[in-house]
Amino acid sequence: MNKIMLFAQLKEDAGKSAIETKAAGKTVGELRDFLEKETPLGNLDGIMIAVNEEFVKDDWIIEEKDVIALIPPVSGG
Amino acid sequence: MNKIMLFAQLKEDAGKSAIETKAAGKTVGELRDFLEKETPLGNLDGIMIAVNEEFVKDDWIIEEKDVIALIPPVSGG
Amino acid sequence: MDSQTERYSRQMLFKPIGPEGQTEIGKKHVLIVGVGALGTHTSELLARAGVRKLTLIDRDYVDKSNLQRQHLFTEKDAEEQWPKAEAAKERLKSINSRVEVEAIVGQADAALLDGLMEDVDLLVDGTDNFETRFLMNDLAQKYKVPYLFGSCVGSFGMAFTIIPGVTPCLQCLIKRLPIQGQTCDTVGIIAPAVQMVTAHQGAEALKILSGNMKAVRKTYVSFDLWENEYLSLKAGALKDSGCLSCGDSPEYPFLQSGREMKVAVLCGRDTVQVRPAESGILPLEQLVSQWRSAGLEVGGNPFLISVVKDGTKAVFFKDGRALIHGTKDMNEARKIYHSLVG
Amino acid sequence: MDSQTERYSRQMLFKPIGPEGQTEIGKKHVLIVGVGALGTHTSELLARAGVRKLTLIDRDYVDKSNLQRQHLFTEKDAEEQWPKAEAAKERLKSINSRVEVEAIVGQADAALLDGLMEDVDLLVDGTDNFETRFLMNDLAQKYKVPYLFGSCVGSFGMAFTIIPGVTPCLQCLIKRLPIQGQTCDTVGIIAPAVQMVTAHQGAEALKILSGNMKAVRKTYVSFDLWENEYLSLKAGALKDSGCLSCGDSPEYPFLQSGREMKVAVLCGRDTVQVRPAESGILPLEQLVSQWRSAGLEVGGNPFLISVVKDGTKAVFFKDGRALIHGTKDMNEARKIYHSLVG
Questions:
Q1: What pLDDT was estimated at residue C270?
Q2: Transmembrane stretches, by residue range (chains C, D) (predicted)?
Q3: Which residues span the domain enclosing B66?
Q4: Closest chain C residue to A49 measured between Cα atoms?
Q5: Which chains have at least 3 CB atom pairs separated by less than 8 Å from chain C?
Q6: Degrees, nearest 5: CA angle A23-A25-A26
Q7: Residue B77: inside a domain, yes or no?
Q8: What is the number of structural domains in chain B?
Q9: What are the phi and psi torsion angles at D182 (to 5°)?
Q10: In this predicted structure, what is the pLDDT of residue C9?
């Protein structure tokens, strides 16, 4: 299983601060598509994805127990 | 082996940001005495000691691979 | 000890800066785009630190609702609706009369910013929208000037230091203009989140300005002060040699004409049309739920939504276009647009 | 929307605060001890956030070397040597005229502080020495009032929220008055380290004042902005039921008479003697090396060391006692003492 940590409005969208899912073997891009379709997170365009505290590209393959973080860039200032 | 992370003036006293030493089996109090005698860190009175990101008392027994942090409370404000 | 040495003595006692670093800081010119919450904090910090010159740009005036988090401003500034850049300048001069402060009251567009870059040593992010950030990002790359990205909303915020030729740029990190509908006007903001971002921007500024490039942070910081979360994320892997802003054949897309947000007063209708730089698909449903939850009056249909904010009605279309009714003021329209979708 | 609602609108839009939380904040009285770098930042933040009352205590006046990091103060305040608490009050009133600000220019000793605690809702640390911190810690426990510990030096700092009956107290965490000789006057301080501490103190203050006790941070934060380090350390295990400040049979040692630093003018000698609350063994060698490295003139022998700072000669004995020569001003002597050993 993989833990997906959520931040800012994603927490509200999901109603919790983390999601558990089986993502091992998926690429980051595939995970993004999966989350958009199967969870209440909605459109993840522009959301940055980190695996084990490191931002990675969409073709990165996720492994068992990797911890994933979804960081929404916010615009305020 | 155990990694001992140093902060603030302890970095300067030691000339580096971390020390490697064999501390497994020692209590935190014994480690403190050892460091005072055997390293350039000098008097560690009032220095707070965390093991694996948790502050512990002097009778806590250190295990192999535990990461230790020495936090000097500073007075400025 | 002369009076300037005494003034900066605590900063010079800090070993990595020292007297040499202080001399370097005293030669530098910093451009701060946006003088809201972030910009007031970083400009005060850099004026106190003793930079040579600060250029401040903001199109807005001080409003009562700014006082909760925007330093430098007083009740009097809000009552008199003083332009933010000018109000900030006045206060900064009383804090450090030796720092040259140039205040520009206007829209930070490509033409204006490009003309200012010549002797700028550092770009600091104080803006409230990604359009201006992508523009700053392109300028940083074109002129090889470090850019301190920062943003916040609610208790959440982030900071990243962009060094041309070394780190990924904003375009490498965020491929498209993000539109999430969370802005300070829809979900609020607490002042400590602002300070947390500016503490990071400020430290990075002092490193860069004093010549301590080795100390520059390589990670992207993201935190939530209410949730007690702090992440420091490695970002190097996102550096993209094909990036149009920082890659091998840069085109600086946000400096191209035609790539800016288009704002036009609609003839005889007391309405301004706003068209974002990048036409994308607005997540209408998410926006509706954000706005409802912020207490705004929202209506619409599958093709458009209307929302009333501070007495002004705005209509948003799926492609990102919006009509701001009841005004002919283009800056006012931009402000409302960004306050609703970021 | 009335004018006060508008003023705090962005803070009320933040869901965990909301209109109810804002009403709570508007009822609260915060006591800030020390109006230097930390105290000016937190007092500005809390005045802007709309607390009912702020009480500010500081014995010192504004000095040119404060301007590099102490918000609220201007060059004029330094030229006129305005007392810090009064200078801060004047600026805070122009920022938020509805907040009651009480400025006390004096030594924050047990007698003074104990007399102020009756309707205080929160104690905020802005002091530069551990003697005053241990005193605040005892008061927090005696009156069951939360205490926001914070401190910084160089680019390093820390913050911890002490909730009586819930978390360990400062005495549980740090058994003895720490003396390391690193102060802002010996190793310097950069302003972003201050903002990093006050961002944490400010967020905790808003949680506590708005009634969001569940959101309060349970970890001890320690960071170094120059080294890009941030630790969040669990501290619960240090809670000590035998602690004399917060344990089962509290004695509040720092509120006992005879437990304060003793300061006395030596008859006919133009010298003040300072004796710390706890006689301990001063690490003379470490102090000598700190002071030398700060560029101070240092002399001495195995029993005592002498040091010259800003034209004043001070002699320190191994037991912590010191003679400050060339002055009869007890506050001046305290200030020099704390600036050299913390």
A1: 84
A2: 145-166
A3: 2-71
A4: C173
A5: A, D
A6: 60
A7: no
A8: 1
A9: -90, 110
A10: 95
Which residue, of C223, C238, C255, is where some domain finishes?
A: C255
> Hey, of D1, D13, D160, which one would you mutate to test binding to chain C, going by the most C CBs within 10 A of its CB?
D13
Q: Does D315 share its domain with D186?
A: no
Q: Which amino acid does the sequence have at C108?
A: A
> Does the residue A76 lie in any domain?
no
- CB neighbour class for D15 (10 Å; exposed up to 12, middle 13-18, buried from 19): middle
The answer to ipTM > 0.90 is yes
How many domains does chain D contain in total? 2
Give yes or no: residues D305 and D322 share one domain. Answer: yes
Single-letter amino acid, residue C339: S
| pLDDT tens-digit readout, D199-210 | 999 999 999 999
Using a 10 angstrom Cβ sphere, with 0-12 exposed, 13-18 middle and 19 or more buried, the burial of residue C83 is buried
Q: In which domain, by residue range, is C180 found?
A: 3-255
**Pair D73, D173 in one domain:** yes
pLDDT digits (tens, 9 = 90+) for D34-75: 999 999 999 999 999 999 999 999 989 999 999 999 999 999
**Hey, how many other C-beta atoms are within 10 angstroms of the C-beta on A64?**
10
C267-319 pLDDT, tens digit each: 767 888 888 877 677 788 888 888 888 889 998 887 788 999 888 899 888 88
Which CATH number do you get for residue C333? 3.30.310.10
Q: Which of residues 95-114 of D touch C (CB under 8 A)?
A: 95-97
Residue A64 lies in a domain: yes
- DSSP string for residues in C284-308: HHHHHHHHHHTT-EEEEETTEEEEE
Alpha carbons C98 and C75: distance in angstroms, whole number: 26
Q: What is the CATH number of the domain that holds C50?
A: 3.40.50.720
- Is pLDDT above 70 for D153? yes
Q: Would you tell me which residues 245-264 of chain D have a C-beta closer than 8 angstroms to some C-beta of chain C?
A: none
Asked whether the predicted pLDDT for residue C191 surpasses 90, the reply is yes
Chain segment A16-34, per-residue pLDDT in tens: 999 999 999 999 999 999 9
Q: What's the residue count for chain B?
A: 77
Whether residues C26 and C141 share a domain: the answer is yes
D13 vs C6, C11, C188: nearest CB: C188
On whether both C269 and C233 belong to a single domain, the answer is no
pLDDT at D1 over 70: no
Domain finish residue from C213, C229, C255 = C255
Asked if C14 is an interface residue toward chain D (Cβ–Cβ < 8 A), one would say yes
Is the dihedral angle over the CA atoms C121, C124, C129, C130 positive or is it negative? positive
Q: Are residues C312 and C247 both part of a single domain?
A: no
Q: C65 in contact with D at a CB cutoff of 8 Å?
A: yes
**Are D206 and D244 part of one and the same domain?**
yes
Q: Per-residue confidence at D303, pLDDT binned at 50, 70, 90? A: confident
In the numeric block, the tokens 């969370």 are attached to C182
- The answer to whether residues C99 and C56 touch, using CB atoms and an 8 Å cutoff, is no
Cα–Cα dist D271/C260, whole Å: 69
Query: Average pLDDT of D78-93?
Result: 96
Q: Is C140 in CB contact (< 8 Å) with chain D?
A: no
Residue B55 lies in a domain: yes
CATH classification of the domain holding A60? 3.10.20.30
Average pLDDT of the residues of chain C:
92
